[in-house]
Write a structure and sequence with these properties.
It is found in: Cell membrane. It contains ten helices and no strands. It has 235 residues and is mostly helical.
C-alpha cells in the first residue's frame, strides 16, 4: 500500500471548505456556554435554594455523560416537544422545519455551559476572600465587586482551562456527522468514501484539526501573558 501524497493536498483543499462551519460550531457554543457558566457558577456559590439543586443536577448530568448522547437527546427530543406544543396550541408549525444545526448547537452549548461553570466557579473560589472584603470596604456591592475585580481575576487564572475547552469542543464538532452535519470529519469521510483513500483524507483532516488547535493555543498564550499582570493586582 502506498500513500497518495497529491491526494492529501486535494483532500485538504476540499475539507477546508467547511472549516468556517466547524469554527462556528466550536466558538458559538463555547461563548454561549461561558455566559451560562457564569450564571450557574453564581447560583452554586451562593447556594440559592430551589435553584441550586437544579443547576447541580444540570452540571453533574452534562459533565457525567458523553456529548454524543447530548446531541442525540436534543436531536430526537426537541422535535417531539415542539410538535406536542404545536398540536396543543393548534399552531401550524412542524419541527422538521428546524435546521439540524440548531439541535447540535443547543446540545454543544448546554455541554459547554456545564464545563464552563466548573471552571468559573473554581476560578472565583481561587481568588483570595480578602479581595471581596476589600471591595465591600470601599463601598462596592457584590455584583460590582464581582464584575470589576473577582471575575477578571478568575478568568485570567482560568485561561488554560478555557483553552482546553475550546480545543475539546473543536474536536467534539466531529460528532455532528452522526446527524448528517457536514463538518470537517464528515467531509473527510465523504471524500475518503468517494475516492477510497481513507488514510490520505484523514491525514489531511488531522493536519487541519492540529493547525486550528495550535492557533487557539497561540492566541490563548498571548492573552494569558497580557492579563497575568492584572490578575496579581486586585484592589
Amino acid at each position: 500500500m502506498t500513500i497518495d501524497i497529491s491526494f492529501i493536498f486535494e483532500a485538504f483543499q476540499e475539507i477546508c471548505k467547511v472549516l468556517p462551519l466547524t469554527l462556528f460550531m466550536t466558538f458559538t457554543p463555547v461563548l454561549l456556554g461561558i455566559l451560562i457558566g457564569i450564571v450557574v457558577a453564581f447560583v452554586r456559590i451562593q447556594n440559592i435554594k430551589i435553584i441550586a439543586p437544579i443547576v447541580n443536577f444540570y452540571v453533574s448530568f452534562f459533565r457525567g455523560t458523553p456529548i454524543i448522547m447530548h446531541i442525540m437527546l436534543i436531536y430526537f427530543g426537541i422535535p417531539i416537544v415542539v410538535d406536542a406544543v404545536a398540536q396543543t396550541l393548534k399552531l401550524d408549525f412542524d419541527a422538521n422545519a428546524i435546521p439540524i444545526l440548531f439541535f447540535v448547537l443547543v446540545a454543544l452549548t448546554l455541554s459547554a455551559g456545564a464545563y464552563a461553570s466548573e471552571i468559573i466557579r473554581s476560578g472565583i473560589l481561587g481568588v483570595p476572600k480578602g479581595q471581596l472584603e476589600a471591595a465591600y470596604a470601599v463601598g462596592l456591592t457584590f455584583s460590582q465587586a464581582m464584575r470589576r475585580f473577582i471575575l477578571p481575576q478568575a478568568f485570567s487564572q482560568s485561561i488554560p482551562n478555557f483553552t482546553n475547552v475550546f480545543i475539546g469542543f473543536l474536536h467534539a464538532t466531529s460528532l455532528a456527522f452522526f446527524v448528517s452535519i457536514k463538518e470537517l470529519t464528515g467531509v473527510a469521510n465523504i471524500v475518503a468514501s468517494v475516492n477510497l483513500k481513507f488514510l490520505e483524507a484523514f491525514i489531511a483532516v488531522g493536519f487541519i484539526y492540529w493547525g486550528v488547535s495550535a492557533v487557539i493555543e497561540l492566541i490563548a498564550h498571548r492573552i494569558e501573558k497580557r492579563v497575568t499582570a492584572y490578575s496579581k493586582g486586585g484592589i
